[in-house]
Amino acid sequence: MGERQIGxxxxxxxxxxxxxxxxxxxxxxxxxxxxxAESGLATYRGSGxxxxxFRVEEVATPEAWAADPVLVWRFYSMRREDAQTAExxxxxxxxxxxxxxxxxxxxxxxxxxxxxxxxxxxxHVHHMHxxxxxxxxxxxxxxxxxDGQYMTAETLPVCASCAEPVRPHIVWFGEVPLDLDAIYAxxxxxxxxxxxxxxxxxxxAAGFVNIANQLGISTVYVGPEAPANAGSFDAMLLGTAVExxxxxxxx
Length: 251
Ligand code: BV8
Ligand code: ZN
Description:
There is one protein chain. The protein is an alpha/beta fold. The protein folds into 2 domains: about 1-40 and about 85-130 and about 175-250, Rossmann fold; about 55-85 and about 135-170, 2-Layer Sandwich (SIR2/SIRT2 'Small Domain'). The protein is about 30% helix and about 20% strand. It contains 10 helices and 11 strands. The chain has a 6-stranded parallel beta sheet with strand order 5-4-1-9-10-11, sandwiched between helices. A 3-stranded antiparallel beta sheet has the order 7-6-8, with helices on one face. It has a two-stranded antiparallel ribbon with strand order 2-3. Strand 4 (about 105-110), helix 7 and strand 5 (about 125) form a beta-alpha-beta unit. It is elongated and about 55 Å long. The two termini are about 25 Å apart. The structure holds ligand BV8 and zinc ion.
């Protein structure tokens, strides 16, 4: 499947993607921290990859959790606080509106752990790196809704049924992203890959565009600067998510 090039060309910021999609086309959207930047949420590299002087890669790891669960819970508690005050932006709403037209021919895979796609109305969203407002027992493993903030050793959450520690339901560096099979199945049947606001520096997400190229499907990047994997895209639409997506997805 997917052997369809819809004639998107380099830097064609005036394209109306929806006009180019026929009844057989399926849109796979991959989003990164950049789509939430205009909602006021820090990106990983925009802040120089630092959080309170820590490198995200140092805090978002099983090793950091084993060494200092209080530090890790403080990291995620403060991000919960930021995400609760953030609002979806016109880019999130543009994707939700496009899904109302395309229905199940559209799939959003987000690397983001915030809930802004859902709050903008998107229904078919897969959080491949977990969700900020879910936690899970390290033993029982079933994620549950949790917007709690845990800042001290005395207040760290433990499982109500087995008393083991509760961790953020987040995929850390070195852990396997969630439901990769489902992602690859959607990629296999897509005809267009739209990637928005990601530096293309973390795998396997940064490799989705290579799979798309092997499948021969059209690939578009939207962001204010070229990502690390820029050379793999058919078209680079340079601009912020809010500048580009509402026009790109207008119908
Ligand atoms: C895996 C949740 C195996 C956490 C995240 C050595 C040891 C161990 C692993 C590795 C290693 N070397 C390589 C690896 C693999 C590793 C990796 O790629 N590391 C990198 C650092 C080299 N990957 C992993 O560990 C992954 N797991 O490999 O498992 C495996 C894999 C497959 C099959 C079997 C086994 C798991 C990685 C997941 C880590 N968790 N998030 C948390 O949030 O706390 S990753 C996190 O960073 C994001 O989720 C995202 O995925 C990634 C990059 O962030 P971006 O979203 O791209 O944001 P960034 O700030 O980087 O860029 C922002 C972009 O937005 C920029 O381009 C900017 O221009 C743009 N922008 C700015 N403003 C706007 C904008 N765009 C639009 N509009 C704007 N206004
Ligand atoms: Zn438990």
